[in-house]
Structure to design on (478 residues):
């Protein structure tokens, strides 16, 4: 049997309906168990992003922690993934992206709470945390806990080189070569040098760069998308109506905005949930690694802060892309050369071109490059902390930083489909030990949530400024 085909089949199975049902199901379970508090406290969580309390243990501020997590999640999925989902699953896929993200708020909250609660301090005084430490320190059966932790850490390290590195570098070089004939070797060299200059200095450098790059790129993309939506606003109400109609129709053909795309409710659900999870990574266990580095006074506070990443990534940025495409009238356009429907970045460029003309290529290329480069930075930190859990030798960690930076050149200059599928499979397999941990320690999550709600949230909503280390007390392993 052809190895590449076998790997593709395995990847399709890993990211198939069973995995998606487990990811969303865990989010539904946690949402109910937490009495919908992640939903009810969303506005409170957004306010907490900008709360400055720098005296507590940690490496970076809560804002920098969130930006580091967002740098890894806001990537090509927000541009390419949304367009692909709307072609394969119809406009209704966007609604299912929203629904999965709503329950993903609770998942992201829970895994971030555990990451901070069970984090440790490494040999150089930095915080080390994430699902692997929650598994090791939180699951009392040490064989189960450490076994799951080792599996998770291994999957993260492997994924970091593929999903978090080479695919992102390849997206940048492909966009610049296709749009502006920039040689891939030149793009690869620049990416490698930029990555090396940031990554060699560790999480504090990543946090500082992410806290500038992520808001800037998000604002740039937000303003560009809003211009398209406003200019094409006459088509927006019909586009939104078509999204909801197709999201809940058992056998439906898209109307005017869909260009004749046929998609059932199950098809919309499949592609919407899949691309939503791929974009915001709720349940995969990656973002909590960044949450564990934050200076915070309570695990639940940082859980709320990092939870907003799912909101910004999927409910805002992905929705903007979806509305741009839906209002442009370009969905369902056929490529005259291949005879296939235009999808991915090409579809997004066509949508932007209805307002910006030839400049659309520049706008999407800039956004895609910034999104992808920030993902490289965030995923290096994830891979580094996972490797640190497995090895715990500083020379190895420094070597990983250099190797990770150099590998971006390989990704930018080479198309390796087998590597993509393999790393994508490892990315999906991360979710299995993480979901087991979330369900196993859901009692810990609920305890932290309800305690924080009673002693902090209700008081802070009434104007009091609560320091949890005096009000609540220090947290075990904190």
């Amino acid at each position: 049997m052809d190895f590449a085909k076998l790997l593709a089949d395995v990847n399709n199975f890993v990211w198939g309906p069973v995995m998606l049902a487990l990811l969303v199901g865990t989010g539904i379970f946690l949402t109910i168990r937490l009495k919908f508090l992640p939903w009810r406290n969303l506005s409170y969580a957004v306010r907490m992003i900008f709360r400055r309390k720098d005296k507590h243990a940690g490496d970076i501020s809560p804002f920098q922690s969130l930006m580091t997590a967002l740098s890894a999640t806001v990537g090509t999925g927000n541009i390419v993934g949304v367009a692909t989902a709307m072609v394969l699953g119809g406009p209704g896929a966007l609604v299912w992206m929203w629904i999965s993200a709503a329950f993903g708020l609770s998942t992201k909250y829970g895994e971030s709470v555990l990451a901070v609660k069970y984090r440790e301090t490494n040999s150089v005084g930095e915080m080390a945390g994430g699902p692997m430490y929650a598994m090791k320190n939180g699951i009392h059966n040490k064989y189960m806990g450490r076994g799951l932790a080792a599996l998770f850490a291994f999957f993260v390290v492997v994924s970091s080189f593929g999903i978090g590195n080479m695919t992102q570098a390849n997206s940048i070089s492909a966009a610049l070569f296709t749009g502006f004939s920039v040689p891939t070797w030149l793009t690869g060299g620049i990416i490698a040098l930029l990555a090396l200059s940031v990554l060699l200095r560790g999480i504090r450098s990543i946090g500082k760069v992410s806290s500038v790059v992520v808001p800037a790129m998000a604002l740039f993309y937000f303003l560009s998308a809003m211009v398209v939506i406003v200019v094409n606003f006459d088509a927006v109400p019909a586009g939104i109506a078509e999204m909801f109609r197709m999201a809940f129709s058992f056998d439906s053909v898209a109307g005017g905005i869909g260009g004749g795309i046929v998609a059932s409710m199950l098809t919309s659900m499949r592609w919407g949930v899949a691309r939503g999870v791929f974009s915001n990574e709720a349940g995969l266990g990656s973002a909590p690694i960044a949450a564990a580095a934050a200076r915070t006074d309570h695990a639940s506070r940082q859980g709320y802060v990092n939870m907003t990443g799912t909101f910004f990534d999927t409910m805002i940025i992905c929705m903007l892309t979806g509305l741009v495409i839906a209002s442009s009238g370009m969905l369902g356009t056929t490529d005259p050369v291949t005879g296939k429907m235009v999808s991915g970045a090409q579809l997004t460029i066509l949508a932007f071109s209805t307002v910006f003309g030839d400049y659309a290529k520049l706008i999407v290329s800039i956004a895609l490059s910034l999104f992808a480069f920030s993902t490289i930075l965030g995923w290096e930190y994830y891979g580094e902390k996972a490797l640190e859990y497995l090895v715990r030798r500083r020379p190895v960690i420094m070597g990983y930083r250099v190797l990770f930076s150099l590998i971006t050149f390989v990704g930018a200059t080479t198309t390796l489909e087998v590597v993509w599928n393999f790393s994508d499979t490892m990315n999906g397999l991360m979710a299995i030990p993480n979901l087991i941990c979330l369900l196993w320690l859901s009692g810990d999550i609920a305890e932290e949530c309800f305690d924080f709600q009673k002693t902090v949230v209700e008081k802070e909503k009434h104007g009091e400024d609560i320091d949890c280390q005096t009000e609540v007390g220090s947290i075990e392993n904190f």
User: Anything to note?
Assistant: The chain has a mean pLDDT of 83.
